[in-house]
Specification:
about 400 residues; about 25% helix; alpha+beta; six-stranded antiparallel sheet; four-stranded parallel sheet; about 25% strand
Length: about 400
């Protein structure tokens, strides 16, 4: 899409420039990305961007109109955290880039989350593309870096001293997103702290910094709560379900409330029909649907070709959905004349006193495999992995 920019990028591309691109990312963070970086950005039209925004705004409206008791049903009882908030601080929404029956390129909703993605990394990623390929600056995100930084500070720090705000993760140095943690530290002046290092005194939490205990007042939470049960011999001083004197950014309950749980409740031309597994109608054909566990992360547990034997064997059918299959359209041409498919994630923030979320950045993922998640890009190919979208006129 946008042939002019695709042609120019492919003409300018070289392995040396790709190596330079990765080296700049490493210099800015001090780390090698632990996931594959695509050689190419996504070039998408302004018309496609309008479709994305239209679908997103409709979905936001529908979520805002849902009764609180429906959202509360999404939270497993053993994962409920006290002091819930009226809205999440983060809202991310994934669309596959597909082709409609009449041949138009259109977005199709894949999933949505109230969980922070690679916000700090994606801004640096976009800047780096523009450094290595200066012509991209004319179609880059219009939000200046300083404005982006101020939004993130306002959201995550609030009125607190950065010393009293932490990014919380479990074994952060082992996470594939560690590069984003480092860039977040640089952006906000906060520390990344492992859950196992948190100290608790009464209802207060502390972490150690330069041999002194510092009180934690706000937590930029990157821990996926329901995954903690899968870590053997995990020892921590506090449990998420305890009532503590801390502000969660974002509150852990929202990970469940804005999730695949909502997909059967949403309606829009760019939202594929979805059903809870235990409510799947007899007149629908299983082969037209993808089976997804409600609370998996990074594509784990997704079955692209479910059978009756597989679905019948599932005991907790209320924790699975069936989502109508969409076909990703391979439209991103590489230098060898081969084509990649992609999806795009819109990265919103939702400040505590704002009526609606604000779109800050996007994240692209490219593939030549059956699944788009970067973990499934095992094929030796180019134009695959993590990317960023640029929108322009055709």
């Amino acid at each position: 899409m946008i042939p002019k920019y695709r042609k120019q990028f492919n003409q300018e591309f070289s392995q040396e420039k790709y190596n330079q691109f990765k080296e700049i990312l490493k210099q800015k963070s001090g780390l090698e990305p632990a996931f594959r970086i695509s050689e190419s950005p996504l070039f998408l039209t302004k018309e496609f961007e309008s479709k994305l925004i239209d679908a997103s705004e409709s979905i936001i409206d529908q979520i805002k109109a849902l009764p609180e008791e429906i959202l509360q049903k999404a939270i497993p009882d053993n994962c409920r955290v006290p002091n819930d908030t009226k809205q999440p601080h983060f809202f991310t929404i994934d669309f596959g880039i597909c082709k409609s029956e009449n041949g138009e390129i259109e977005p199709q909703l894949i999933e949505l989350q109230a969980f922070p993605s690679l916000y700090a990394f994606q801004k640096v990623f976009e800047d780096t593309f523009c450094e290595v390929y200066p012509f991209l600056s004319e179609i880059r995100n219009k939000m200046p870096y300083e404005e982006f930084k101020n939004y993130m500070k306002d959201l995550i720090l609030g009125n607190e001293n950065p010393e009293n705000v932490i990014l919380l993760e479990i074994y952060p140095e082992k996470q594939k997103t560690a590069i984003d943690f480092v860039l977040t530290e640089k952006l906000l002046g906060i520390k990344t702290v492992c859950l196992t290092k948190i100290k608790k005194e009464g209802k207060k939490l502390f972490y150690e910094n330069d041999d002194k205990l510092v009180e934690i007042k706000r937590i930029y939470n990157r821990v996926i709560f329901d995954e903690l049960d899968r870590i053997p011999d995990l020892k921590t001083e506090f449990d998420f379900r305890e009532d503590i004197y801390v502000t969660w950014v974002t509150h852990p309950n929202w990970f469940f409330k804005i999730s695949k749980f909502l997909l059967p409740l949403l309606q829009h031309q760019f939202v594929p029909k979805s059903y809870f597994l235990h409510e799947f109608p007899k007149n629908e054909k299983l082969e037209n649907f993808v089976l997804k566990p409600l609370f998996s992360f990074a594509g784990s547990g997704v079955n692209l070709n479910p059978t009756k034997e597989i679905t019948d064997a599932i005991d907790d059918k209320e924790n699975y959905i069936l989502q109508r299959k969409v076909t990703y359209e391979p439209i991103f041409e590489d230098i060898n004349g081969e084509f990649s498919k992609a999806e795009i994630r819109l990265l919103y923030i939702w400040r505590e006193n704002d009526e609606r979320p604000i779109l800050l950045e996007n994240l692209g993922r490219m593939t030549k495999a059956a699944m788009v998640n970067v973990d499934f890009n095992k094929k030796d190919a180019i134009w695959i992995g993590s990317s960023n979208a640029f929108f322009g006129e055709e």
